[in-house]
Amino acid sequence: MTDPTPSADPVDVLLDVLALGETGARTSEDIFTASSHPMPGGRIFGGQVLGQAVVASARTLPPDRSPHSLHGYFLRPGDVHKPLTFAVDRIHDGRSFSRRRIQAFQEGEPIFSGIASFQDDDPGLEHQLTMPEVPGPEGLPGPSDRVHGRPEASLLLRANPIEVRHVDSDIYLSVDRPQPRQAVWTRLRRPIGDDPMLHRAAIAYITDFTIQESVMRAHGVPWATPGIRTASLDHAIWWHRPGRADEWMLYVQESPSSRGGRGLAQGQLYSRDGALLATVAQEIMLRVPETGASRTP
């Protein structure tokens, strides 16, 4: 975050950006306004836009119809210093399902476009993958323990609303063992109440953090690599079961392929008691000096 201050509660900052404004304006779409929290380099964090898209689309539906999937493209880098406008198109309302198209704009230019699907809580067949057995989060080091010699990085991580503990060593400064997979424990840093829609939006926010690392870890590329360039290209999330973003979740991540400056990452998010809460897929741009010239997508 730009000029982060340890005294500011990072979760309060997150809740502020998820509290979208309503102007009352509506043409064929519902219009909402939003701001951004600071980020390094002034680019909007993709997870923020995902969370805001969930909130905006949910505002057009009754509270008992919850999002079960969101598929979106990041079209342009967003600027944290400029206001955001969200336009929601009510493209379909059925007996059990609703679909909403969400677009985020800055200065009239779309920076994100996605479609979210909502469903009533219906009965049906049920199964899930079993959560892998890994050490719990309590005995794992936090990121500040690893980057204490780099004050800027340590301050940035402490000012983040998301808490992360890697099951294996993190990749902030180096990669101990290159492999296309990792697992992290993650949660918001403090409770945020009991609103299930807010938790789904916060989970969407969290899913964009660390998912890129399975691609980077596969090639032994740490975040500290000089000249590294990364950007989220698209993102899909399927919510399977209700969960709490402010309690520990295990985020299991794997990258099946990378090529042409792009890498695909997939993830499963489990509650502490083993319930599969969500499945995630994201393709990223990843460029390092050894594999080609950097350029913005």
Automatic annotation (TrEMBL):
Name of a matching Pfam family: 4HBT_3
Occurrences of domain Acyl-CoA thioesterase 2 C-terminal (ranges): 181-283
Superkingdom of this protein's organism: Bacteria
Keyword Hydrolase found: yes
InterPro entries: Acyl-CoA_hotdog, Acyl_CoA_thio, HotDog_dom_sf, TesB_ACOT8-like_N, TesB_C
Keywords carried by this UniProt record: Hydrolase
Region (Disordered): 122-147
Keyword set includes Disulfide bond: no
Residues covered by the Acyl-CoA thioesterase-like N-terminal HotDog domain: 36-119
PANTHER family assigned: ACYL-COA THIOESTERASE, ACYL-COENZYME A THIOESTERASE 8
Family, as annotated: Belongs to the C/M/P thioester hydrolase family.
Protein known as: Acyl-CoA thioesterase II
Species the sequence originates in: Microbacterium marinilacus
